[in-house]
Amino acid sequence: MDTKALRQKILDLAIRGKLVPQDPNDEPASVLLERIREQKMQMVKEGKLKAKDITNDTIIFVGEDNLHYEKFQDGTVKCIEDEIPFEVPEGWEWTRFSAITINRDNERKPISSSQRTDVAKIYDYYGASGKIDKIDKYIFSERLLLIGEDGANLVTRSKPIAFFAEGQYWVNNHAHCIDATDKFILEYLCFYINAISLGKYVTGSAQPKMTQDNMNSILIPLPPYSEQKHMSQRLKEVMYTVDNIEIGKVDISDLVSKAKSKIIDLAIRGKLVPQDPNDEPASILLERIRAEKEELIKQGKIKRDKKKSVIFKGDDNSYYEKIGDTIENLDSIIPFEIPDNWEFIRFKEIWNLISGRDLLPSEYNNQKVGIPYITGASNFNDGTIELIRWTPNPQVITHYGDLLITCKGTIGEMGFNNFGDAHIARQIMAIRNTFNLNSEFLSYCICFYINSIKASAKGIIPGISREDILNLILPIPPSEYQEQVVAYIRKVNVLFDSLEKSLN
Fold first, then answer.
1. Which of 27, 174, 368, 493 has the most crowded Cβ, counting Cβ within 10 A?
2. Top-level class of domain 305-479
3. Which CATH architecture has domain 3-243?
4. Tell me: the pLDDT tens digits for 98-132?
């Protein structure tokens, strides 16, 4: 579920009068507007406002021709029908932002970061997008609506544009300070500003800014006072529900991720599906592989490894590794216990690891000329590999079925080659299954080790070496168990993927 879109839809319904039922007995917004105008004029008489503070207040009305007009204080009238974005219910009125608010921007004051360094952190210090610091003094001690004046958030809307400040606090010159004759109106204005597009009120691209004049010109569809209260309460209830959905979404996504990791952990320990004592033990499988290797060596297709590794369990129930004439105890690095018919083996004894090579820009293209060129993590998307470059001059080629893993920069992204021959850059290693083992089970084993593999990375741009992979100690189950595990995880992942898709 797209909770951001849901929030926007709810706000849109609210400002169009479609969130709560209309009550024809409510005092119309026209009466509310008249009362606000009288209150602001009285504040001018009492010296609480200056005459210039209400100079730009206008009256918007519907003429006999059913069009919207705006009357200015000099008596002029202008048709603004082309500005009205949508129809509002009976009893609502259109007005300008300035006509129903009191601007208090002249009271705010910026304090530089250096001036805020060595002061007591007591009172909140607000900027364009919310609290940014604490200082030892305050300007305001009442609840006001703050609206971002400048900054990228006016465009990205990653945070609310309008928000409330309460208690005792300070505001810098990057947030408009908005008051009203009846502060409850501010609740509605907060929802409205966060609901609408502000594009036409924002100037500048490098440094977006919504000036006071532009903000004051925003058209407001004003509901009756009573409906504002109902709407505010309803919005709080609905948004609380959306918040819980969002929290639940995060929780469920986290649970799915943990469940997938746990399943892989159980799989490579031999605890995911029942062991069958009738399965051919892994020791026989490994003997057959070693015989195949010897034949390939005789044929000159592969070279003999002078540091051939054989891992075995001794009579003392400890694990040992024999390399040449040297035997070393491995108990300290054996990751876990395995069933009796399983074996441990070094990665290099079974799988072929191919390191990539970078190409010059002149050697590749995006016109699909040649074979695909896999450059790095940018090609990987949730286990699939996307093709975005090609080369007619391949040098290091991955084949269909190879397991590809990123080894530099973003480390540990994996995906199977399901498209055929492709050149790989040095940010990629290809794992080739020479002896017809189950590559998917191997991928689960590497997932188990992925955090330790990442931890071994070195360099300014983190990278892992071939040895980090070649020397991994991996569990080898009987072939039948590998097939069963892969089939089981495929089925479970279909369910997990469906659940995650429903959350988005």
1. 174
2. alpha beta
3. Alpha-Beta Complex (3.90)
4. 999 999 999 999 999 889 988 999 999 999 999 99
